[in-house]
Amino acid sequence: MEEKKVLYSAVQPTNNLTIGNYVGAIRNWVQLQDEYRCYYAIANMHAITVRQDPAALRKNTLQLLALYIACGIDPEKCVLYVQSHVPCHAELAWVLNTITYVGEMERMTQFKDKSARHAENINMGLMDYPVLMAADILLYQADVVPVGIDQRQHLEITRDIAIRFNNRYSPTFTVPEGIYGKVGAKINDLQDPSKKMSKSGDDPNGAIFLSDDRDTVIRKLRRAVTDSEACVRYDPENKPGVSNLLSIYSVMTDKSIEESQKEFEGKGYGEFKLAVGEAVADRIEPVQAEQKRLLADKGYLESVLKSGAEQAFRTARKTLDKVYRKIGFYQGDR
Length: 334
Ligand code: ATP
Ligand code: LTN
Description:
Layout lengths: L5 E6 L7 H14 L4 E6 L1 H4 L6 H17 L8 E4 L5 H10 L4 H5 L2 H9 L6 H16 L4 E3 L5 H18 L7 E3 L34 H9 L17 H14 L3 H7 L5 H27 L2 H30 L7
Parallel strand pairs: 1-2, 2-3, 4-5
The structure holds adenosine-5'-triphosphate and L-tryptophanamide.
Adenosine-5'-triphosphate binds next to helix 1.
């Protein structure tokens, strides 16, 4: 049998996830799990690059695991694990740091955005975030990395780092490709459709969380910013608010953008927004129920993480040994 290609992705256990995370990332993971050998991590080491409440971080970790499974990711098929459970990530990041330039990191859009938002805490980890992400991906020799568009720059730098290492020390790492969904690779903020919906944004009305109940979802959508044209048409340039809602509707109902647009021909924004709200709530309610059921079974969740960490470690350690050998770290008989 032909070996499956490798897929790697992760989400940070910061806060509850938004429908942006679901649409841009996790939904695609579910669709890809049969085709690839999949590693899905909970990136808690990335999370601490901005200040976290320790108790909340701990709690969010199991919540995120339960959410992965509730969204349809099958722990029997995929490796689900917590980043900090596999020490190779920090070790490889250190090596990759020595072939990454400060100037490259300073140019990263996310670093600039987060530095502006957390001006009191521009720490080394925040700047080094993409190198740790490169270590995550390269440890597993990933062929593909499904993420939202906001991560494209980090993926490009990962490729650069892999190529640089391969050129300097001989071929070692697979150079990964990003996979971005066709619709919904970037869901925007409901209050400010010029920026992405973020789980740690400032305005809670701008984001819909997967944990929101039906009334909250409908209320947030009713308040979503649109325009004065009163016509439901997909035109991201001129109608960013309405186009964003159409993308959300299309993804939540598995209909194409054209089909969705047709459905609302001649209808007002009030009716449109309500339909989007119902569609989102219909989609997330079963996920919430399943997440709740899973969270009541901590023993099961812990067994998933234990097995995930063991499997991940085996692969990661193999790559790290190879790296250490190539760069000249003395390893005795290993
Ligand atoms: P934070 O606000 O805490 O920085 P985030 O909402 O950007 O977080 P991440 O954990 O950084 O979430 O990202 C998880 C995944 O979700 C990534 O693949 C990212 O590309 C994707 N993603 C995040 N926001 C969106 C969005 N608005 N639209 C589509 N995909 C998104
Ligand atoms: N930085 C990512 C989360 C992440 C990730 C990864 C994604 C950490 N390590 C490796 C893909 C591959 C984000 O989505 N913000």
